[in-house]
Predict the structure.
Amino acid sequence: MKKGKVYLVGAGPSNPELLTLKALKVLRKADVVIYDRLVTKIILKLAPAKAEKIYVGKRSGKHRMPQEKICAILTQRARSGKVVVRLKGGDPFLFGRGAEEALEVKRAAIPFEVVPGITSALAVPEYAGIPVTHRDYASSVAIVTGHEDPAKLKNPVKWEKLASSVDTLIVLMGVKNLEAIVQGLIKGGRDHKTNIAIIERGTTKRQRKIIGTLQDIIEKANKSRVKPPAVIVIGDVVSLQQELSWFK
């Protein structure tokens, strides 16, 4: 029996044209594809038709399959000699629990590789005409999760400290907690006139952006009925979108 292997693969930010060549190569030889909610049907079709495809997508508060079971499937399929592709939106090691899955595979003594993916944290602002750094506007950038595990007791995101320590803030999975994020940044001393952009379904044909300031973005987001997936960008670089918007 052939020896199984697990590939933790980043599928990028939903746009199939942003899939890497390495990811495509791995997908084409998969026996099993275990994929998340933001992986598109077009990307799935790149895997062999005979490959087993297992959906394990998660939404806030709605998990189709517990993380423990996902890890169990990874190890079980690989132990049976399968080439297993764990296909995750964006990059597998950025807020995707890829590191947890890699540790489980490692502990099971199963060979694995990590295939980096283009993260929405950078690609989505770029498709909206927003450079996350610029010599005249921003020399530092932080990528932060806007949705933490409610059971997490250590090291919660300290929005008040981030307010004055980083030029550009990129928040993933933050739509639901937008009000708390904005309030924390203002409380920490961030100017209420600071530019902010919410980019919904970035890099796809359904891309939409809502531009405002910390002072008015909550009202604008509610009026526009913003829904995830969306990337939030906070900082002076947002003003450049007026000149650099290119994606229609």
In short: The chain is about 30% helix and 20% strand. The longest strand covers residues 5-10.
